[in-house]
TrEMBL record:
UniProt subcellular location: Membrane
Keyword Lipid biosynthesis: no
Record key words, sorted: Membrane, Transmembrane, Transmembrane helix
Record field: transmembrane: 30-49, 61-80, 86-105, 117-133, 139-159, 171-190, 213-234, 241-261, 267-285
Disordered: annotated segments: 292-320
Ranges annotated as biased composition (Basic and acidic residues): 308-320
Membrane disposition: Multi-pass membrane protein
A GO cellular component annotation in the UniProt record: membrane
UniProt cross-references to PANTHER family, sorted A to Z: AMINO-ACID METABOLITE EFFLUX PUMP-RELATED, INNER MEMBRANE TRANSPORTER
Keyword Transmembrane: yes
Protein name in the entry: O-acetylserine/cysteine efflux transporter
């Protein structure tokens, strides 16, 4: 992988880490459920008008949209609006990677390697440390909501995998068509027309400018451009080469939250973060030797669980 492509992978990870700050700003103006509606509608409308629908079964397209779009972001935005710091949110969402592996083993009968099991145990231990610290010093509900968002992401990953598309970027764009209508119903029921109206009114004032810029960053930079570059890199290199760069997301997210939002992280939470990142990395990077061989298409020869997990990590980091 040449240095310029390494720089692109690092840049995308940095953009996704900063995106949690953009989300935090957006939630200052927009009600969380309504923010999900706006975020996906801004992509879904031009997608329906200008992008051909990918040739995938409808059930997997809907499942991808429900898991990745509805469940992940409804719980993430709810958790952050309830007090989950942006930096820690970027870390806890990494639980989507071990969740994806576990769902694949449970429902798709995929074999787990010893390396993956160890990685999952280490990552879950790190999450438990972070959760324990949150319970000791702050409300535990935002942490649990963010963890639920990571599980929703994993559901979307499995549906994405089952869609078996040859054009993952087009599938990602069409996934955005699923969340707006159900999330609008949820927003009307939970937040009500008055709160939605206040979000819209404030968005068109000077006070709402930071939220608008945050939303624009999320839609254009993090989702369309970031996902586009990441998908292009994944089409050129094995997943095991590209996917580990996603572990820079919580590093950037937590550092940026500290610098821009003055969100401090306790030493024990940093230790938990190190365990989470180490566990996901350990479980996603294949060993050297026979397991590292790739065929002419850049895919693992054996197509086993470890090779597929690399794709899972890639799917579990797209479109923050």
């Amino acid at each position: 992988m040449p240095s310029r492509h390494i720089a692109l992978a690092v840049l995308v990870a940095a953009v996704w880490g900063v995106n949690f700050i953009a989300i935090d700003y957006s939630l200052d103006t927009f009600a969380p459920m309504f923010l999900v509606v706006v975020r996906f509608a801004l992509i879904a409308i031009p997608t329906v008008l200008f992008v051909p629908r990918p040739a995938v079964p409808t059930r997997w397209l809907i499942g991808y949209g429900v898991g990745f779009g509805v469940l992940q972001f409804a719980f993430l935005y709810w958790g952050m609006s309830a007090g989950m710091p942006a930096g820690l949110a970027s870390l806890v969402l990494q639980a989507s990677a071990p969740f994806t592996v576990l769902l694949g083993a449970t429902f798709l009968s995929e074999r787990l390697s010893t390396r993956q099991v160890v990685g999952i145990v280490v990552a879950v231990t790190g999450l438990a440390v972070v959760g324990w610290q949150r319970a000791e010093h702050a409300a535990i509900l935002p942490f649990l909501l963010t963890l639920a968002g990571a599980f929703g992401w994993a559901i979307g990953n499995v549906c994405n995998r089952q869609a078996r598309t040859a054009d993952p970027f087009r599938l990602m764009l069409w996934m955005t068509v699923v969340p707006p209508i159900p999330m609008l119903a949820v927003s009307l029921l939970v937040e009500g027309p008055a709160e939605i109206g206040e979000s819209v009114r404030t968005a068109f004032t000077l006070d709402g400018l930071p939220a608008d810029l945050g939303l624009l960053f999320t839609v254009v930079v993090a989702t369309v451009l970031g996902s586009g570059v990441w998908t292009w890199l994944m089409s050129r290199y094995p997943a095991s080469v590209v996917a580990p760069f996603s572990m820079l997301v919580p590093v950037v997210g937590m550092t940026t939250a500290w610098l821009m939002l003055d969100q401090s992280v306790r030493p024990v939470e940093i230790a938990g973060a190190v365990l989470v990142v180490s566990g996901v990395l350990f479980g996603s990077i294949r060993r050297s030797g026979r397991a590292q061989r790739v065929d002419r298409r850049g895919e693992p020869e054996d197509g086993g669980a470890e090779g597929s997990h690399g794709h899972d990590v890639e799917r579990a980091t797209a479109d923050l």
